[in-house]
Amino acid sequence: MNQKLIGGVVGGLAGGVVFGVMMAMMGMLPMIASLVGSNSAVVGFLVHMVISAVIGTSFGVLFGSRSTNFGQGAIWGLLYGAIWWVLGPLVIMPLMMGMGLQFGAALSGPMLMSLMGHLIFGLVTGLVFTWFVRR
């Protein structure tokens, strides 16, 4: 299998664990579980990890060739985390939950915490991806 795909999965899972712990501390995992009809934090964590692996794989495809050193991995990872902050909690998830777009809530406290989590996810994903493909 392609090194960039595997590196993306590994990076996404690493970023997912870090972000998942943050979401657990904020009590957000049951909301993630609601995407599959559950309210269990464990189910929410598992759903989050599957999503993280998919997003990590797409990082490898989209930014893998640009992440040739740790600085580039960090920058592209941060950018990708910001993109997923817009796509995830502001667009895709609220639409799936029947809430409509959430751009008006983007500057609220919870959404700013979500931004921080997504940036950390992206940073870890980019750095771990770069480490994996360079080893």
Could you give a short description of this structure?
It contains 5 helices and no strands. The chain is mainly α.
Structure description:
The chain has 135 residues and is mostly helical. It has one domain (1-134). It is built from 5 helices and no strands. It has helices at 3-25, 29-33, 41-63, 70-96, 109-134. It starts with a helix and ends with a helix. The mean pLDDT is 95.
Short key terms for the protein model shown above:
135 residues; globular; DUF1440 domain-containing protein; 0% strand; mainly alpha; 5 helices
Oligomer: single chain
**Tally of helical segments:** 5
The SSE order reads HHHHH
Please state the average pLDDT score: 95
**Percent in helix:** over 70%
Rg over alpha carbons:
14 Å
Map the helices and strands.
Blueprint: H1 3-25, H2 29-33, H3 41-63, H4 70-96, H5 109-134
Helix pairs in contact: 1-3, 1-5, 4-5
